[in-house]
Amino acid sequence: MLQCPDSACGSSVGKGDSLHHQVMAAFPLCHLTEEDLIQNPLFCKVLATLSQHIDRTGLTLPLRKELEQAQRELCLQRLGWLRSESLYRLLQEMIQEQVFHQHQSGGPPAGDNFYSTLEQCLFVATCVRQLDPSRSVTEAQPPILGLSAEEVLRQMPSKQDVLQMKQRLPTELQKHLKKKLFSLLSYYQPDGENESEGLRSVKLSKLPGLLAAERGRVDLLAERNRENTLTLQRQTHSYLMELLECMQLLQTLVLDFRLKVQKDLDRKKIEYFEAKCEIGIQKIRAEMLAVQLDTYTRDKIAAHRKITEELGAQLQAAQVEKHSLESKLASFEIYGKEFEALAEEYCRLRQEITTRSWALREFTK
Questions:
Q1: Hey, what long-range contacts does 306-309 have (CB within 8 A, 24 or more apart)?
Q2: Helix, strand, or coil here: 241?
Q3: Mean pLDDT in residue range 66-93
Q4: What mean pLDDT is reported for the chain?
Q5: Alpha carbon distance, N-terminus to C-terminus of the chain
Q6: pTM score
Q7: What angle (nearest 5°) sits at the alpha carbon of residue 159, between those of residues 98 and 131?
Q8: How far is CA 355 from CA 50, 108, 360, 361, in A?
Q9: What is the DSSP string of 293-346?
Q10: Which of 27-31, 142-146, 258-262, 291-295 shows the lowest per-residue confidence on average (mean pLDDT)?
């Protein structure tokens, strides 16, 4: 706990607004205002000290470095998996398209076993990967269907067929990718389906840049939409507060300055206005409650509750220590000034309990 009197902290904060701006910039998720920091100088100084050890999201600097390193490793692992998975799916698509063409034509072409060899190799590789025991599987556990990876590898095509398939695979894969890219270009620019292949290839080379620009524009519009939503929420809250003040003023005028003549008519009018004001107030309260429900999410409430519980536990421990010291002080008062050090320790504990009680009340508000 900071051992700083209110006057000293207030003077250090009051020298300028730089400390307030530093705290508000370091904790953007807390929704602090300059008025809150001025009213709570000790809390402001604690936040200023804490901002030197954590980032804007609340993580410590070493933990942020570890998180960034883990994210980079995860991205590398994910990139490797995506490459292998993309290649596997492309090969599956090639095989499926070939099977579809065979059904349409009535049979496979004579002397062409490229796709059958490719399909058999993929099937064997998939089976081997499924049969490969992981680290969590013990050696005593029997293999699936009593098969081993070596037995499945025996089902591979002949080496000559595999070699011919590997020599032809890059060309076929390139054709398939080119066909998919042209399909993507036709979807993005349907007017250019009848253009020449060279012109479509030039457009295809520019497609990544166009898609990146389109993605940037979408992200920019999404960010503007979020900013507009926040602005609308703030304006709605301000409008509701102003409307509530107007309704309260109207209620005051109706209740405090009503006329003294025409008692019956005025009484009925007053009752009508009171009911109307009550309905308006209830609507405003409902809107304010909806705004508060949108503002204070479950995560924020849980964080506030956890802070309150922690401060309550600290306060309870300090009170127990206070009672213990009071009982000891009462038992040693008969010795006079010989135990003046104990009295000073007691005064220090009382001041700490007062400071923590104030912090608990502020967090409760």
A1: 307/363, 308/360, 308/363, 308/364
A2: helix
A3: 89
A4: 77
A5: 20
A6: 0.42
A7: 75
A8: 19, 87, 9, 10
A9: HHHS-HHHHHHHHHHHHHHHHHHHHHHHHHHHHHHHHHHHGGGGGGGHHHHHHH
A10: 258-262
